[in-house]
Amino acid sequence: MKFGVDARTGRLNVGKWSVAMPRSRTGRIATGSVLVVGGTLGFLPILGFWMIPLGLVVLSHDLPAVRRHRRRVTVWWASRQKRRDGAGKKDGGSAAE
Questions:
Q1: pLDDT above 70 for 88
Q2: Percentages of the chain per state (helix, strand, coil), in multiples of 5
Q3: Are 1 and 54 in contact (CB under 8 A)?
Q4: Are 56 and 70 in contact (CB under 8 A)?
Q5: Three-class SS of residue 3?
Q6: Looking at residues 76-97, what average pLDDT do you find?
Q7: Rounded to 5 degrees, what are φ and ψ at 10?
Q8: Contact status, residue 14 vs residue 23, Cβ threshold 8 Å
Q9: How many Cα atoms within 13 Å fall on the side-chain side of residue 22?
Q10: How far apart are CA 75 and CA 92, in angstroms?
Q11: Is 51 helix (H, G, I), strand (E, B) or coil?
Q12: Residue 1: per-residue pLDDT
């Protein structure tokens, strides 16, 4: 599953969906900022808290500080998944005996 901005195409990939990103840096920063601010109003109809992580992914394409935090979370998530998958294989893979 892909997640993030594809450097070759400039598209935002979220799972099986792909959305075109603005070509200008200013446009991407504005889009990411609007998504984060809109996400803080997630209790209102139409807007949602899902907008915050999406806005941070968009901002991470242009802002090094956000990129570092996104990368740290990505590495943490991958190691967590590896540990979880490894723990299931060590005990034979079945939880019910």
A1: no
A2: 55, 15, 30
A3: no
A4: yes
A5: strand
A6: 72
A7: 75, 25
A8: no
A9: 12
A10: 26
A11: helix
A12: 58
What pLDDT is recorded for position 68? 92
Give the number of residues written for the chain: 97
The CA distance from 26 to 13, in Å, is 20
Closest Cα to residue 87, out of 76, 79, 72? 79
Provide the 3-class DSSP secondary structure of residue 6.
coil
* 4-13, 31-40, 65-74, range with the lowest pLDDT: 4-13
- Residue-wise pLDDT for 38-62, tens only, equals 999 888 887 888 888 888 888 988 8
Distances (CA, A) of 36 to 54, 56, 94: 8, 7, 41
No. of helices (H) and no. of strands (E), the chain: 3, 3
DSSP code for 1: -
